[in-house]
Amino acid sequence: MTAPRILQPTEDALNEAARRLQAGELVAFPTETVYGLGADAQNEQAVTSVFAAKGRPAFNPLIVHVGSPGDVARIASTDDRVRALTDAFWPGPLTLVLPRLPNGKVSLLATAGLDSVAVRMPDHPVARSLITRAGIPVVAPSANASGTISPTDAKHVADSLKNTDLLILDGGRCRVGIESTVLDLTGDAPSILRYGAILDSKIALVLGTPVFYADGSSSLPRSPGQLLRHYAPSVPVRLNAAAPRSGEAWLGFGETTAPGLNLSPRGDTSEAAANLFACLRALDNPACTGIAVAPIPDRGLGRAINDRLRRAATKGD
Ligand code: TXA
Ligand code: MG
């Protein structure tokens, strides 16, 4: 039986990890958002094993991670908006969905057969060192079984992908804690497909145009991931709760008197985002009837947090 191996990111470990990627094998690595399950984006077989390890539906495309903004032009068509946004926010938690180059080398499975491709340059020294050493674009969905909570430390990855032949580079706790903002630039109007730490107001300022939000309710969702129940604990989640009911675990925010965990006692939405997934994991205990969550204001990263919480609270797959 194979099992994940966790290594500190020493020179030796980084070299071994880079060799594994080049050989079509899997490596989980830390990014500033969440841990990614990495594989060679140009190797169809390697990409297939990412979908298999996660149990991810093949219609849900992956993000291609690059080591520098200059690498994007080999994968997708770029324009002035791309340059402005990568200058402002890369490396960092912003994913751009761009027209895929027809003769680009990214695996068709990675893009789920779409004529667009999602790219991002992560802001974590381990991720950057790994991608640069491997010298290839790296697909990396969050390193968890599909439909479960994204991992924000190395142990979460090992727990979620138990029977996988996998090297996990341990970079400690992820700084941001929720997945990147996904911005669709395939049309004239830039639109957010997933809320994250790069706020739409900041993007609008850089582009000098309004930014829209494409929610999953349109008849033709542009981000297949929006269709799915995501980030879900095994017990029910009740949102905007004033207090826990008997049997419920409590996840507070700001001042609270109920015993349980608190996303941010001082009411800071960035701190709350960094703690969100680890708290949901810690409270996900079959001995309780559910998890009650205090209201989170929509300011700052609050919108991204509430988006994740709504998906966690949605029943069924
Ligand atoms: O922060 C992150 O983005 C993390 C770290 C590891 O980089 N990765 C991540 O990947 O969250 P994943 O696979 O869990 O989420 C990717 C999201 C999905 O909702 C997917 O549908 C969307 O990006 N996506 C990928 N390619 C797309 C495309 N061509 N068009 C529209 N949406 C796309
Ligand atoms: Mg994910």
List keywords for this structure.
317 residues, alpha/beta, eleven-stranded mixed β-sheet, four-stranded parallel β-sheet, 15 strands, globular, binds threonylcarbamoyladenylate, binds magnesium ion
Q: How helix-rich are the residues, as a percent range?
A: 25-40%
Q: What is the number of helical segments per DSSP (H or I, 4+ residues)?
A: 8
Ligand catalogue: threonylcarbamoyladenylate, magnesium ion
Which class of secondary structure composition applies to the elements? alpha/beta
Give the overall form: globular
Short description:
With 317 residues, this protein is α/β, with parallel strands linked by helices. The protein has helices at 11-22, 44-54, 80-89, 125-134, 154-160, 200-207, 269-283, 302-313, and strands at 5-7, 27-29, 36-40, 63-65, 94-99, 116-120, 138-139, 167-169, 181-184, 191-194, 212-213, 237-238, 248-252, 261-262, 290-293.
Please describe the topology of this protein.
Elements: E1 5-7, H1 11-22, E2 27-29, E3 36-40, H2 44-54, E4 63-65, H3 80-89, E5 94-99, E6 116-120, H4 125-134, E7 138-139, H5 154-160, E8 167-169, E9 181-184, E10 191-194, H6 200-207, E11 212-213, E12 237-238, E13 248-252, E14 261-262, H7 269-283, E15 290-293, H8 302-313
Parallel strand pairs: 1-8, 2-8, 4-6, 5-9, 10-11, 12-15, 13-14, 13-15
Antiparallel strand pairs: 2-3, 3-7, 4-7, 5-6, 9-10
The structure holds threonylcarbamoyladenylate (TXA) and magnesium ion.
